[in-house]
Design a protein that fits this description.
It contains 10 helices and 18 strands. It is of the alpha+beta class.
Length: 388
């Protein structure tokens, strides 16, 4: 059997195993509330092993979702071990700690994973260089908040009303230069030091209160929002415009994950690729007393409200439409200006990927890093690590 065929079968086994493992969590969330989660990982086309892993499951109750994208580093065995330890420690820590501030619990869980990986690497010479980067979120439907803990160059995006927003910061100098506008996205993607990061899970012991380690934020949970967590195996291969294009299609959450990974593989698949999507709809149709469903009635925060003749709601509706139209107009001109780039565009009707078309839409950073913020992102440059 040829090497390519062996690798292809290995990739299929890995993908199927991960899907089966998380399908039960996906089904659970579908049955109980209006939040949906699906993730997948693929070794890519160059490597024979997969150092990535992910989490996509309910935590504590069916109104709370934990999602994590983890990218291991440290060699053939070390990266896989670090990634697995991070995944197991974070989940176990949170499952045993239901009470307390959500953000603080998430930071403590990530810190516990960091220290466990560090101790393991010290006690086993095979893994002395292992570590990982990760992005984790807790989505709390009841409190309408999203809690993020982030270390490294994996990423968190939100997608809402046609706008893709990068919520996390890359803990790398190249990523910093991209965020302040010194590098274009395309220049950063092809920079030789793109994968050199300043923060790594497992390289040294930490406390959850340590500064310049975990990037922790709280974001509002708003209706009709999709959150994307991914390893750099996705964002080093395809642009934000390509991601926006795929998320804009009217596909199931699983189909979107599959298309994102396929786009990265079609672009070369040089690294392991991991993608996790969390979709939140909030508004549900309400069954009226006559037993019929009226599309003009919705449940928001547990209260029934009538749409239709409400002037305030009408104004909000027109404002939303105006914002959406404005976003597409801006995105159109951005696409025209960047017409020298090769983008991945999905034909939503045929589910086919076109690698020559330029996508349109609106892409933004949630908070652009300024020069004054540099010290809060980077510590000692001598500690830079490569995430290959």
């Amino acid at each position: 059997m040829s090497k390519n065929k062996k690798q292809k079968r290995s990739n299929e086994k890995t993908t199927d195993r991960e899907r089966v493992e998380y399908q039960s969590a996906l089904n659970s969330s579908q049955k109980n509330n209006c939040i949906d989660c699906f993730g997948d990982t693929n070794p890519g086309l160059v490597r024979t092993n997969n150092e990535d892993s992910f989490v996509c499951q309910n935590i504590w109750d069916d109104q709370t979702v934990l999602a994590i994208a983890i990218d291991g580093l440290g060699g053939y065995e070390g990266g896989e071990v670090a990634s697995r330890i991070a995944k197991e420690v974070i989940v176990n820590y949170l499952e045993a700690s239901a009470n307390g501030d959500r953000l603080e619990l998430l930071k403590q869980a990530v810190t516990s994973a960091n220290n466990t990986i560090f101790e393991t690497s010290r006690n086993d010479a095979r893994y002395h260089q292992m570590g990982c980067v990760l992005t984790a979120i807790i989505v709390d439907v009841k409190d309408k908040e999203v809690y993020m803990a982030h270390v490294g160059d994996s990423r968190l995006y939100s997608f809402q009303h046609g706008i893709l927003t990068k919520l996390s910061h890359d803990h790398s100098y190249v990523g910093y230069l991209e965020e302040i506008g010194d590098y274009s996205e395309e220049q950063a993607m092809h920079h030789p030091n793109r994968n050199v990061v300043d923060r790594v899970i497992g390289q040294e012991p930490h406390l959850s209160s340590d500064k310049n380690f975990i990037e922790a934020e709280v974001f509002p949970l708003e209706p009709f929002t999709t959150f994307l967590l991914c390893s750099d195996g996705l964002t080093d291969m395809i642009t934000s415009a390509s991601i926006l294009n795929i998320l804009s299609c009217d596909y199931s959450i699983k189909e979107k994950v599959d298309l994102l990974i396929k786009a990265a593989l079609d672009a070369g698949g040089k690294d392991n690729v991991t993608t996790v999507l969390v979709e939140y709809l909030e508004d549900k149709q309400v069954e009226k007393p006559n037993g019929h469903i009226d599309e003009e009635y919705f449940v928001t925060d547990g209260k029934e409200t009538e749409m239709g003749m409400d002037k305030k709601n009408k104004k909000r509706w027109f404002a939303s439409v105006a914002l959406l139209v404005f976003g597409f107009i801006i995105g159109f001109f951005v696409g025209r200006i960047s017409n020298n780039q090769i983008e991945v565009k999905v034909n939503c009707d045929s589910n086919q990927i076109d690698s020559t078309s330029v996508s349109s839409g609106l892409i933004q950073n949630d908070s652009i890093v300024t020069v004054d913020d540099k010290d809060s992102i980077f510590t000692d440059s001598s500690n830079l690590k490569t995430t290959y």
